[in-house]
UniProtKB/TrEMBL annotation:
PROSITE patterns: PROKAR_LIPOPROTEIN. It comes from Gillisia hiemivivida. This is Lipocalin family protein. It comes from the Bacteria.
Amino acid sequence: MMRISMLLILMIFLSSCNNKPEDHLEHINGYWGIEKVEFTKDSVRDFKINEIVDYIEIVDSVGFRIKVKPQFDGTYIPAGEPEDIQVKIEDEKVALYYSTPFNEWKEIIVASKEDELSLKNERGFIYHYKRYKPLKLDLDEKENE
């Protein structure tokens, strides 16, 4: 019985060690609405409504992020210029290096799940995102008379 318990503990430990930093990229592509920003543990700004959301697309460690404005018909209008992204693994963490013609900066992926994303910038601010659910109103629907 002791051997089985030790074997089970060893298997759990080894399976938890299999989480690679690259696993954070599994769910990153798509539309993200900001939920809150943690400036410090005691200073948090909540966002109730997202008029602008981020669209992220990364393939083979290269991609882009662009701010877009959701429309009522489920489409999006660009609300800024794309930011190029280069993904690098540093100290067992995933770093996203952004660049535009005017600036360069870095963010670290703190957490990444199917519906949640947290990024920490170089100033230590943590941006918490939720997967954005698109608006879809049927504007062509006619009332029954």
